[in-house]
C-alpha cells in the first residue's frame, strides 16, 4: 500500500514538473513576442516561422522514433487541433500582444482552465460543470470586466485593451475546446504524432498567409531571428510536446492548470524585462481571475477525491 501511495505521489510530482515546464515555455512566448515587435518583426512572420521550425523539430523526433503511421481518423484530429489548438490561439494572441502588455494578455490566458471546464462539461462525462465551478467562472469573468472598465493596458502609452480582450478571449475559447477534444480522444493517438500533425498543417497555411501579407522574411534582424527561434524552441515545440503527453495521463482540467502560472510568469517578466506597468486595473483584475481559478480548482479537486473514495468503497 505504501509503495502504491509513493508511486502515485511520484507520478503527481512528475505531472506538476511537466505543467510548470509547459507554463514557463508558454509564458516566454508572450515576452519574446513583445521583444520581436520591438525588432519590427511582422506578426505573421513570427507565427509562421516559429511553427515551421517546431514542425521540423517534431518531424526529426518522429524520424528517430518511427511510430506507426496515423490513421485517417487521427489525421482528422490533427487537422482540427491545428485550427483550434494552434492557428487561432497563436494568431490572435500574437496580435493581442501588440495591443496590450504581456502581463495583460497573460491574465486573459489564465482563463483557459475555466474555458476548458465549460467545454469539458459537454464533451467529457467525468468532468461536469458544477455550481462551485460556475461561481469560479463568474468571479474570473468579473475580473476581466473590471479590467475592461479600468481601460488599463499595461503599456506606458498607446494600446487598445478592448481589442486585446476580444482577441485574447477568442484564443481562450479556442484552446478550451481543443483541450477537451484532445482529452476526449486521448489514447487513440500518439502524442508526438499529434503534435507533428498540428504543426505541419498549421505551418502550411500560415506560411501562405505570411507571404501574401508580409512577403519573404528577408529584412528580419539577427535579434529578430534569435527571438523567432527562441519562440519555436521554448514557447512552441517544448510546451506542446509536454501538453499532449499530459493529456494521456491527467484530466483536461489538470492540463489547463498552466493557466495558474502563465499570468504570474508573464506579468513578472513583462515588468522586469519590458518595463511594463502594473496598473490598478490589472492588479484588481488579476486578483479576481486568480480567486475564480482557485474556487473552480477546489471544486475539481473535491470531485476527484469523491470519485476516488467511491471507487475504493466498491
Notes on the structure:
The chain has helices at 2-38, 43-65, 72-96, 102-109, 112-123, 131-150, 161-184, 191-213, 222-247, 252-255, 258-274, 280-313. By secondary structure, the chain is mainly α.
Helix vs. strand class: mainly alpha
Count of helices? 12
What is the gyration radius calculated from CA atoms?
19 Å
Percent of residues in helical segments? over 70%
Element pattern in H and E:
HHHHHHHHHHHH
Give the distance, in angstroms, between the N- and C-terminal Cα atoms: 17 Å
What form results from the Cα inertia axes? Answer: globular
Instruction: Show unreliable segments.
Output: 1-5, 307-313
Oligomer: single chain
Mean pLDDT: 83
Question: Strand fraction band?
Answer: under 5%
Major sheet attributes: none
> What's the count of strands?
0
Task: Give short descriptive properties of this protein.
mainly alpha, 314 residues
Short characterization:
Helices cover 81% and strands 0% of the residues. The chain has 314 residues and is an all-alpha fold.
Topology:
Blueprint: H1 2-38, H2 43-65, H3 72-96, H4 102-109, H5 112-123, H6 131-150, H7 161-184, H8 191-213, H9 222-247, H10 252-255, H11 258-274, H12 280-313
Helix pairs in contact: 1-9, 1-11, 2-3, 2-8, 2-9, 3-7, 3-8, 4-7, 4-11, 5-7, 6-12, 8-9
